Amino acid sequence: MKSPTSLELLTDALRRLPGIGPKSAQRIAYHMLQHDRDGALRLGHALCHAVENIHHCARCNTFTEDEICATCLDPKRDATLLCVVETPADQLMIEQTLTYKGLYFVLMGSLSPLDGIGPKEIHLDRLITRATDNGVTEVVLATNFTNEGEATAHVISEMLKPRGLKVSRLARGVPVGAELEYVDAGTIARAMLDRKTA
Amino acid sequence: MKSPTSLELLTDALRRLPGIGPKSAQRIAYHMLQHDRDGALRLGHALCHAVENIHHCARCNTFTEDEICATCLDPKRDATLLCVVETPADQLMIEQTLTYKGLYFVLMGSLSPLDGIGPKEIHLDRLITRATDNGVTEVVLATNFTNEGEATAHVISEMLKPRGLKVSRLARGVPVGAELEYVDAGTIARAMLDRKTA
Lengths: 198, 198
Known about the structure:
Chain A contains 8 helices and 6 strands; from the N terminus they run H-H-H-E-E-H-E-H-E-H-E-H-E-H. Chain A has helices spanning 6-14, 22-35, 37-53, 70-73, 88-97, 124-133, 147-160, 185-193; strands at 55-56, 63-64, 78-85, 102-106, 138-141, 166-169. In chain A, strand 5, helix 7 (147-160) and strand 6 form a beta-alpha-beta unit. Chain A is globular and about 70 Å long. In chain A, helix 1 packs across helix 2 and helix 2 (22-35) packs across helix 3. Chain A has 198 residues and is α/β, with parallel strands linked by helices. In chain A, the strands form 2 sheets. Chain A has a 4-stranded parallel beta sheet with strand order 4-3-5-6. Chains A and B meet through helix 1, helix 2, helix 3 and helix 5 of A and helix 1, helix 2, helix 3 and helix 5 of B.
């Protein structure tokens, strides 16, 4: 059997990207070779460089090229607040709201026992050390509002409350701009129970 | 302004892939760094290696790592038949049917004057040289059945027929397995006009 060609190796490697099947991989390979060799080369180098240089922040666990990430080192952030998110993408979304000036802890996932993701995989031991050692007074749980995210928030809450920390959770309710007719009943029920004095 | 991080460079580079927007690029970058660093490295090397090694076959214009591709060099192929396709993917599809044993010429596109793709860009000069110099007796036009593909087939046909070559086109008609009720009228009209004695 002959060894695979550069083109076959490239198509196989492209299939490792999430959401890319065999047809797409072939289409992308042909496209890059025919129309964007410069882009292909840039992507090739960027991938190798990223794998080599990017690891997790020793303090908040997000992706960074340094020992401690820029957010953790920023003296202007409020070190008494610690926001727990599932992914760096979630962290970015919260940053974009400009409503939060504290620090973060990135779980890099959520509890999902069926997939073998337990407390150790999402670094709950490190989170507890982080939350209790550095003058943190409030932990804001900003995991997703999915079953896994809610379970994760519950577990973290139960672990931190006995340690004397204030633990809060992002408010649930009707999304901004939503029409009630098109909002699901669970969300409206929650918003009704959590209603605020106007 | 600070220089972009490895992660930003990677996300930007991923956006060069066809069909990948900013959100997908970010999602892919995080996924590869968190769950498949080995795959990321493999893809990085495959891209660099492919760009460096893959070019066009001097005879049929398909992608190859050699001067002349394996198909063109195969002595078992029928050198009197030349099939013209738009892309290497189309060539692969025809190969998979196992109904064709001749050689190929890959245009790497189709005529599209509005996009600036004229006869030169799809190498029609090289096709004519190839079709008239090497004992070819029949040219099978297997460009797509789109407007661009049909126009391309027409132009090639008009160029080659005066040179004494037999020029044929893939048959048009109702797809195998199709129910007439769901086939478009244009296809049925064509199939009616091209009907064959049973």
